[in-house]
Design a protein that fits this description.
With 224 residues, the chain is an alpha/beta fold. Helix content is 35%, strand content 18%. The protein has a five-stranded parallel β-sheet. Strands 3-4 form a two-stranded antiparallel ribbon. The radius of gyration is 21 Å and the shape is elongated. The structure holds adenine. Adenine binds next to strand 5.
Length: 224
Amino acid sequence: MNADVFTLFPEWFEWFRAQRHVENALALGHSLDAIDFRGSTPLKWGQVDDTPFGGGAGMVLRVDVMEAALRARYGEDPVSVRSRRRVVALTPGGRTLDDALAGELAGEPSLTLLCGRYEGFDQRIVDHFCTDEISIGRYVLAGGELAAMVVLDTVLRKLPGALGHADSAVEESFSEALDGAPEYPHYTRPASWRGWEVPDVLLSGHHERIRQWRHEQSRRRASS
Ligand code: ADE
């Protein structure tokens, strides 16, 4: 996957890129670039936003600024960029991110994430340059950067080889393997601690019974 994030704070992503699963994904040939859209603004003094028509509080990211940034990066009209790569605006009101959406994005060869600040995007950015609007939850962040990292975190860890262990992203919370239910509980040594015992079945070595017990626990968590 080749992922581009358009942001006013590209340096925030240096920390993110250094995380183990992200490093693993990059070492496997995937890419993650953070692009400062202030750097390509056609306006004076690095201006990227403006006051909203109709009045109201806050500032809105300008469509001409976002167009210039996308053109500079992809060398073509952003209206056609979106026909060949997924372009996502991060907004509080977008489609809520879940495991299924993360899986869908992980299957894309390329992904562009646009991070808003202030009151968000001029609607024409979303309508004409984007394929999706994604929210990480029904609350308002000061900007899209943390949301972009959340999206990338869950997407990149799904790429084969990004996690150390090949099975770790298969049978986990909300996955198809568990019919969308939360994951079953895990235990490790010591088997007994302050009288808190690990369930016997997990120590039994009986793989089929363990599998059944785990799926039962997962279903129970889903219904509680
Ligand atoms: N930008 C501001 N709030 C957001 C949210 N909850 N999800 C995605 N992007 C956002």
